[in-house]
Amino acid sequence: MIGQTVWTAVKVALALGFGMNMAGLLAWLERKQSAISQDRIGANRAAILGVSAWGLFNQIADALKGLTKENWVPPQGRPRLHALAPAISLGFSLFCLSALPFGGVVHVAGRLWSLQPLESSFGLPLVLCFLSLGVHGVVMAGYASGSNYGLLGGLRAAAQMISYEVCLAVSLAGCAFIYGTLDLQQAVLWQGRLLGGWLPAWGIVVQPAAFLLFLAAGAAVTKRAPFDVPEGESEIVGYFVEYSGMKFLMFLITDFIESIVIAGLIVTLFLGGWQIPWVTLTGALGGVLMLAAFSAKLLLVLLLLMQIRWTLPRFRFDQVLDLGWKNILPLAMLNFIVTVWGVLLWRLR
Amino acid sequence: MAATVATVRRPERTLATRIYLIEVFRGLVVTTRHLLVNLYRHARRALGLGGPAGAVTIQYPEDPARLGARARTRHRLLKRDDGSPRCTACLLCETICPARCIRITAEDSPVEVVEKRAKTFQIDLGLCVFCGYCAEACPVDAIHMDANKVELSTYTRADLIWDMAELMDDKPKRPSLPSLHP
Predict the structure, then answer these.
(1) Disulfide check for A264: which of A56, A100, A102, B53 has CB 3.0–4.6 Å away?
(2) Within 10 Å of residue B100's Cβ, how many Cβ atoms?
(3) Range of the domain at B103
(4) pLDDT at A89
(5) Mean pLDDT, rounded, of chain A
(6) Which of A30, A36, A307 has the highest number of chain B CBs within 10 A, making it the mutation to test binding with B?
């Protein structure tokens, strides 16, 4: 029992460490990928002993700068809430990471090791709930700043995030119905089967429309371009306008962590999770391969999300809400109804 | 010469563009093509195989700045054959200067052929807009503007004021030092 608790704690700590380091890596990836796509070089000046490692050290320099800057709270603001807001935003999104199945269950040294940090039979709603709790941090940030611009940015963010949470859940309803479970691990195991003996039954094969809808809704929930109306750094100001230093960076990291969570959900529910098609993974080597497969798929989805972010211009706010309520939500509901009837007719066959 | 008018057809909003998904995909193709082509070029150059550069960036302090061949930059006062300044202190440049950055004080010239000469001649490059009117206005071709001498930055505003000797390159412009009391 104690051993189980320790193992879970270790797994959760590893997942959080994975998330934080991945966020730093994503900051580097965002700079470099955007720069190379736009025929630029990108940040490359920070160097240790003359070695700049393609700008990797810029992230360390940014973190040091963030940590050493003045901790400034606007005089009309509310200091405690001002400090709490980024912590809530980051904390809830980090928690989501620990519910993702990074790997399956492997049999090593005479006992079973589950590579999912938090095993739960209702993992999917858990992740979605904690993802939407992050909106409290955003609104709190706008409110605690004591600035009208910040408050309006927070309200924009709340309207957008809540709208797209609905789309997010409804677009996944079809998947959950086909897999017959809300347990993320079980959903991955379901995708291990082969259709017609050769095609892996990944979510993207059995629910292609849901994949596209979830991708769009997921990009909106992470508040990144083309859905970055809440911050809109180039012309309108967002909810963290009164933030500086590490507290500002925490909001930035939150966006990256949310991207990782969304990408993790896409991998888990649509790309077969940690499975490698046509290969059965067992033992210690299997465990390592599971983690590697999950990470590789995660990285590919993140690259796609990043490329979308640097391709599309920002939507207007009314376009954002129109897209969510008038297009994605009805289509997701239609997808669910079609799925339900399809499964029913298949069973009655 | 008759003007040629090109009629550009505005892109129409068809069903395909309104669905937007196809357009998103086309946009992704463009950016991804740039990404892959530039990555390939960077890799070729990193391996020493040469080829076109993967980026248009000029890494300025290491690589020289690329300006137009006739970019107007710092001023230069020209000299006669005997080394004395050509300026006759007519004040035309000071008059035409839209930024009012030129200050000249005149004195009697010891030479018979000219009446006056400049006693002091100062240009405040912090005010100058580099329009080149001074060089155009000068009746005796005493002031020119150098091309591509852009590294003129200083730590204080006072250091941006160049005097006559510095403008004639008789005395090198002294390097500016960081000041704790600007």
Answers:
(1) A100
(2) 11
(3) 72-167
(4) 92
(5) 90
(6) A36
